């Protein structure tokens, strides 16, 4: 074992000894199979597995994404689960990425010109408030955040935005309510892949967590991978283990 790893482990143990009686607060939006409201799911269980190796535990809470981001940046929460990597003074990120998000789909109207992708300066996209898609959009694109899928679909249907960007799983989750408002959904809208999913991470509040802790977390994540713990979590939830991996750089594999 290298001296760096030995020091990292010592820091992890020291942190564990001083914080064992105080669970860390982890926040995320509710995503079926990943961050369930009852504290189950691939992401929650992965977080639990790594923290347990550090002698720690987490209290988990699901809230709207925008609120989750505000809380972790303000130091009201320790951990946010499911964030994009960013260079920030408010957040620390481990080397290990948690997963690769679903591909993002664009929902357009049947009346939208099919060459809409080439009309960069005339595009307006909507997405659920707090998703943060604007971080990865071109400067020439306008965006309008909405509070719900139905609100976004109404804007598309009225021609006020070019497309609603979301995950297919979110649309499926709200299928019943969508069909109540748009019973002829397939005749009104077209779904197509907008872009491949990006790598997502567990982020740590810089107000509550220091970089030594993040190094220790990475070390324990490596151990959880080596002993098969993470693979078993993915298998239990029938998720593709190929979406989990190391390094925040490069395109998803």
Properties at a glance:
6-stranded mixed sheet, 5-stranded mixed sheet
In short:
The chain is an alpha/beta fold and 253 residues long. Helices cover 35% and strands 23% of the residues.
User: Whole-Å distance between the termini?
Assistant: 30 Å
What class do helices, strands and sheet pairing give?
A: alpha/beta
H-E order = HEHEHEEEEEEEHEHHHEEHHE
Major beta sheet summary: 6 strands, mixed
Radius of gyration: 20 Å
**Portion in helices:** 25-40%
What can you see in these coordinates?
It is built from nine helices and 13 strands. With 253 residues, the chain is an alpha/beta fold. Helix 2 packs antiparallel against helix 9. The protein is elongated, with a radius of gyration of 20 Å. The two termini are 30 Å apart.
What is the element layout, followed by pairings?
Elements: H1 3-19, E1 24-28, H2 42-53, E2 58-62, H3 65-73, E3 79-84, E4 91-92, E5 96-97, E6 99-100, E7 104-109, E8 124-128, E9 142-146, H4 149-157, E10 163-167, H5 168-173, H6 175-181, H7 185-188, E11 189-195, E12 199-205, H8 211-226, H9 229-236, E13 245-246
Parallel strand pairs: 1-2, 1-3, 8-9, 8-10
Antiparallel strand pairs: 3-12, 4-12, 5-13, 6-12, 7-10, 7-11
Helix pairs in contact: 1-8, 2-8, 2-9
